[in-house]
Design a protein that fits this description.
Shape: elongated
CATH class of the largest domain: Alpha Beta
Number of domains: 2
Order of helices and strands: HHEEHHHHHHEEHEEHEHHHHEEHHHHEE
Number of helices: 18
CATH architecture of the largest domain: 3-Layer(aba) Sandwich
Bound molecules: S-adenosylmethionine
Strand content: 5-15%
Radius of gyration: 24 Å
Helix content: 40-55%
CATH superfamily of the largest domain: Vaccinia Virus protein VP39
Number of strands: 11
Structural class: alpha/beta
Oligomer: single chain
């Protein structure tokens, strides 16, 4: 044990602990009868240590290394993907820090919004704890997603968050880069790998289907992420937003009348045609029910008072991304219009609708 500890750089105590909890048990015997690490144990220990270094918890690691469907080569491939991802993220952070240092040197202060926008997972490490308050499965939309998954038995859920749309009757593997979101997954939820869409740590065609719900707009490179989904799964299902049609923005009163900053968040966003092309599929509309259970940006289109609630807004990334000034201005204007009756006058036609078409789309390939 001492030699293995010296070679790996972990303490003998750690190795004892792994032995005690059954994570890595030395199975060979020395001539003197002491327990020793056989070649297979060393291989397992290396996997455990690598996953540990990537930030996985011991219980999560036990599930990963005990998975009979994953052999040593598959583990090495997955670990390689995860490490490359970590390297890319570190490089992106260094670039962002350099940019901010340069700006500060010139006396320019970056806004909180700019600081948070480095990339999606970081944003969710900041705002993620507010998420479960109002974000949950909307059964009618879930039915549409699950229907689109067809007869897929194994499903990869990318940008899984707390797993609101994971089908209960299939074998799900989740991918989620934000540690805060991973930690909020309910007990008994599908196993979750710390990785990002742009570099999925799985071999080609590993899953019957890959799904992504309300996450693509957070990815650093949506097209690369969608191609990755296409690579690892035979079927792809993505719930997203059609930003190519300015008409949708005008259709949703919140963006149109109170939060014009929403449009700026979409300037670099690929067109629906580009997104659909990346997976080689088609797009179908998703109507938002008037009493939508999942509190995403458009969910309260017929319940405008909801947007005055801080808890509702904190679980919607748009509000953090537009920054506190725009948020306060929009909320004050909306409150005034609700009090004066101006909102009702302007949006009279909505009361008669049970579901609204606000540009949300299900891409299916
Ligand atoms: C609005 S939440 C949606 C979560 C979940 N799909 C749901 O519907 O409840 C967006 C999620 O995307 C994740 N995310 C951000 N960047 C990502 C990336 N590059 N790859 C995969 N997921 C990412 C965030 O950490 C966050 O959990």
């Amino acid at each position: 044990m001492g030699r293995v500890a010296a070679l790996t750089g972990v303490t003998v105590r750690t190795l004892h602990h792994y032995d005690e909890i059954g994570l890595v048990r030395p199975s060979a015997r020395t001539a003197a009868g002491y327990r020793a690490y056989a070649a297979a144990d060393v291989e397992r220990l290396r996997e455990v240590l690598a996953y540990r270094r990537l930030g996985f918890g011991l219980r999560e690691i036990a599930d990963l290394v005990d998975d009979p469907a994953t052999d040593a080569v598959a583990h090495l491939r997955r670990l390689r993907g995860l490490l490359l991802e970590q390297r890319d993220r570190a490089a992106a952070l260094v670039t962002a820090i350099d940019r901010e240092l340069g700006a500060r040197a010139m006396g320019i202060r970056t806004t909180p919004q700019e600081q948070l926008q480095v990339f999606g997972a970081q944003l969710y490490d900041v705002i993620g704890s507010a998420y479960p308050a109002t974000r949950r499965t909307e059964p009618r939309i879930a039915a549409q997603v699950w229907d689109a998954l067809g007869d897929a038995r194994t499903v990869l859920n990318v940008g899984a968050g707390t797993g609101s749309y994971e089908p209960p009757d299939r074998e799900v593997t989740a991918v989620e880069p934000s540690a805060v979101m991973r930690a909020q997954r309910p007990a008994g939820a599908a196993p979750c790998v710390a990785a990002a869409a742009e570099s999925l740590p799985f071999p080609d065609d590993s899953f019957d289907a890959a799904m992504a719900f309300s996450t693509v707009h957070h990815w650093r490179d949506p097209i690369a992420g969608l191609r990755e989904m296409r690579r690892v799964a035979r079927r792809v299902v993505v719930f997203t937003y059609d930003a190519s049609e300015a008409g949708w923005r005008d259709r949703f009163w919140l963006a149109r009348d109170y939060l014009p900053e929403f449009a700026a968040l979409l300037t670099d966003w690929p067109s629906l045609a580009d997104l659909t092309r990346a997976i080689g599929g088609r797009a179908e509309p998703v109507l938002i029910p008037w009493d939508c259970a999942d509190g995403f940006f458009e969910a309260y289109w017929r319940r405008p008072e909801a947007y005055l609630d801080e808890h509702v807004r904190r679980a919607i990334s748009v509000w953090t991304r537009v920054g506190p000034q725009a948020e306060q201005r929009a909320v004050t204007a909306l409150r005034d219009d609700l009090t004066s009756g101006r909102w009702s006058d302007r949006n009279r036609d909505l009361v008669a609708l049970d579901a609204a078409e606000l540009g949300l789309r299900l891409l299916v390939a």
